[in-house]
Amino acid sequence: MNKREPRKPLVFSGEQVSGREINGSSLMPMLIAGLVLIAVGYVVVMVFV
User: Fold this and answer.
1) Is the model's pTM score more than 0.90?
2) 10-39 as b/e, with b when 16 or more CB fall inside 10 Å?
3) More confident residue, 36 or 2
4) Would you say the C-alpha torsion 13, 14, 17, 19 has a positive or negative sign?
5) Which UniProt keywords apply (predicted)?
6) Backbone dihedral region for residue 21 (phi beyond 0: left; psi -120 to 50: alpha; all else: beta)
7) What are the C-alpha distances in Å from 44 to residues 23, 32, 47, 48?
């Protein structure tokens, strides 16, 4: 790099830094998986009760 050229700052958005897909939603699959785990846990508990 030439020392006479000014250095430009790097600007990143939060979506770029997080690494997730910009148009995708990561919360809905986590919500569904959580509800499935709760339902499975309920069934297992009810079998023993």
Assistant:
1) no
2) eeeeeeeeeeeeeeeeeeeeeeeeeeeeee
3) 36
4) negative
5) Membrane, Transmembrane, Transmembrane helix
6) beta
7) 37, 18, 5, 7
